[in-house]
Amino acid sequence: xxxxxxxxxxxxxxxxxxxxxxxxxxxxxxxxxxxxxxxxxxxxxxxxxxxxxxxxxxxxxxxxxxxxxxxxxxxxxxxxxxxxxxxxxxxxxxxxxxxxxxxxxxxxxxxxxxxxxxxxxxxxxxxxxxxxxxxxxxxxxxxxxxxxxxxxxxxxxxxxxxxxxxxxxxxxxxxxxxxxxxxxxxxxxxxxxxxxxxxxxxxxxxxxxxxxxxxxxxxxxxxxxxxxxxxxxxxxxxxxx
Length: 241
Ligand code: UDP
Fold this sequence. Notes:
Structural class: alpha/beta
Radius of gyration: 17 Å
Bound molecules: uridine-5'-diphosphate
CATH class: Alpha Beta
């Protein structure tokens, strides 16, 4: 068994990752698959913090475009991430992985509040910590929340699990000759507006030198491969061309 390269990582899962082939909500088989993928590095001693999105249930920006007050819409979006976090917690605990959910919006009966020192203690004890409710503030995304929490817990890398296998110089769906980009810099992502994460998230990662890896969640074993340092997906860092 290959040894992990990283001791502490932050995994960002979009809400859509839990949707599977459905157009809304949580697909039980996808949830079980994701939990199994997370269990592997956990069982090999890797400390895992997770940020889950909410796009499979509710997106603030979309609702505000229909006329809803943006702050209310974003509060609903953040609550959607709590629903996903609880679902992931349940799936992980069914597989014997100890977890804690911490929310950036207090709801004591449901989950712990976000307290950094407590989160660190959980990680040291080998519990998977799921950060829910994004940053707790409207006008942000869970990508930005993921970078923020990764910095706070001193994760060595942020793993952005998506439905694509990484970055291309053009959209491979419409440009069959698009070239895959294995390594790139934050600046290139910003300049070329490669929509892998929102600009705020990329800028925050760049300012703090947090390496990012964008990879395909649906290929079994990918999370562990990335954690072992295999060349999977696209790496974004300061040292890349
Ligand atoms: N959200 C927010 N503040 C945050 C994080 C998320 O207001 O710090 C809201 C926002 O409305 C967003 C929704 O939560 O649309 C779901 O998050 P996101 O769109 O990032 O989820 P993903 O695309 O990863 O599924």
